[in-house]
Amino acid sequence: MIKMLLLSLLKALGLFILAQKITARRPRILCYHGIAVDDEYKFSPGVFMQSATFDRRMALVKKWGYSPVSLDELYQQHQAGQYQKNTLVITIDDGWAAIEQGMLPSLKKYGFCATLYLSSYYVINQRPVFKLSVYYLFWKYKGPFTLADNSCLKPHTTLQQLSINDVLSLAAELGSAYEQPILQELADCFGEDIALWQQNGKLMFLSAEQVTALAAQGLNIELHTHRHKFSELNLTDAAKELADNQHYILQLTGRAARHFCFPRGEYQPEQLPLLTAQQLKTATTTENELVARQSPLLTLPRLVDNDKVSELEFEAELSGMMTLLRLAAAPFKRDKK
Ligand SMILES: [Zn+2]
């Protein structure tokens, strides 16, 4: 509340405009995720934004005078020794199906280019994302999950009613072949129509055909690992995640990806040479900040935007006002430690 009052005041005083000038040579990399088909923005506003919110954000990007560029352009500016003024990149993580109807029209309307960091597993395996769907169904219907007499889980548990943790641990034990049957039983029990999800893209990823079409329309498709796993893996498995992801992206788009986004923004320092070995030019995290001249290209920060962020907070980040406030507060934070 105090933050919002302070930001309103700073904006009214014209300090957002001043902040934009002061931070002009610090590129902004915006980070987005999915779009809600239905009520997913209430379930997980950090992942599923309302398309109307995204459209208003793009209008603000335009209003503040930015013309988004590609990650290749950002990389070239870095190699040339200096970032150009007002450089901005739009990135979208994961590959949620609804971005096609919920984000692409706004991007087209403003003539903005964007990058999609694609995890390929659920593109190839076209079914709802298992874990998130289980969380969603328990969030919406509050359980309990009573097993039907012919349940595929009956041979594997003595329980009649399962909690969310029971479902997830059983699924982990039984393997991915059980995921879709379990999800179907769970939806049947709660009365949710999963077949509809397959049509409207709820909790689904883009299909292979959609990815190919979007790439042909100019959306840059880049790496996000095949199974959305990286920091938790050993070097061999992490390298395989990158290679599998690269394989599918090449197959879907006809072009090799050269940029990467760490799943959940997390990485181990010893994993960074894997990116160099793959000849990747940049990699991004979810550290919320503007890029600086000295920011390492393989751990670039971004401005994370979602439905939990108000328009005023977004403008405060976009203009660089928040960066200046964080800089001003840094010495006091150090003293506290
Ligand atoms: Zn992700």
From TrEMBL:
GO terms for biological process: carbohydrate metabolic process. Residues 82-274 form the NodB homology domain. Keywords: Signal. InterPro entries: Glyco_hydro/deAcase_b/a-brl, NODB_dom, Polysacch_Deacetylase. GO terms for cellular component: extracellular region. Pfam families: Polysacc_deac_1 (PF01522). Gene3D superfamilies: Glycoside hydrolase/deacetylase (3.20.20.370). GO terms for molecular function: hydrolase activity, acting on carbon-nitrogen (but not peptide) bonds. It comes from the Bacteria. Its main location: secreted. It is found in: Secreted. This is NodB homology domain-containing protein. It comes from Arsukibacterium ikkense.
